[in-house]
Amino acid sequence: MHFRNVLSACLIFVNLSLAAQSARAEVKIVDPWPDPASIVEIVGQHVTFSSISPFDPRDIADARERKPAQVNATLFMPPDATATDTVPAVVMLHGASGVQEARELTYGPQLAAMGIAALAVDTYGSRRDMAETFIGRALRITETMFVSDAYAGLAYLAANPAIDAHRVVLAGFSYGGMAATYALYRQLADALAPGDLRFVGHVAFYGPCIAHFDDDRTTGVPLLMLQGADDILLDPKRCEAVADELRAGGSKVAIVRYPGAVHQWDGGWARRTIGRNLAPCRFTVEKNGLVRDDRTGLPMSNPILRGAILALCTGGPFPIGRDDAVRAQSNRDFGAFLAQAFAKPHG
Hints:
The chain is α/β, with parallel strands linked by helices. Helices cover 33% and strands 20% of the residues.
């Protein structure tokens, strides 16, 4: 498709444009991406940073008065990154199944081997005091907390002298992909990252499209939505509507759909059905930060109401399944997007 061709063309010139900037270490996005078996020397480092835990956008100010969460993350650094040769970075947000060896912990070393730092954030594991079960996490650890961790992770990376804070992309998978999309709205960015520190691009891997923001203004950077054409967790018409809202709000948005692919093509599981389908759900984020269910009008303001709303709107299980051919293509599309985002002058 045309967008993929445009993105792939970026790979041709990215090394030249980045190498011309003497303060930046070389980025080499290759195709195919590095074989994990060939980069075992790149080991992730456990790091922590502080973040708040707002239940919804309206709760952000109050959450700042509560004890912060100490967020666990795994940082993968390119071997040649130094304060005089800074590198760009990617912050990664996991899905409802948490951080996965086959996904975040595989992408991390691959990105580092290509000259890009990667921070795999563990939002669930950092809040075990709030919930430990799958259902408990779904009800108590919200997408606003994911977005909070994303911007806290950006601030953490900005304090690292080897990382170029003005060349950091946010990527999320499934539930984390939905959060990566939400993080593009200025309403959340301004509340969680005051000042001028922003991501230079957002990528949503198979992120559900279920929320409308009354304030559709964005931070102005691009969004790439990567989706399986056979993923019933995503409503194509709703995703197109969300993309149009974001475009109206100031961002370029591209959607790439992979024929035959279902949810989580880059995970570790073979084809199966799991979970509950969020595609029928519709929420509105009001300008004051209240999240309201479109069907019932109920506010999603606490775990009890959240549970009731989700019980009413979700459907049956949905298919997931690893597909290495689709993963190879999404690597190309993701890599080309990164090349374009990192090549632009920022800061």
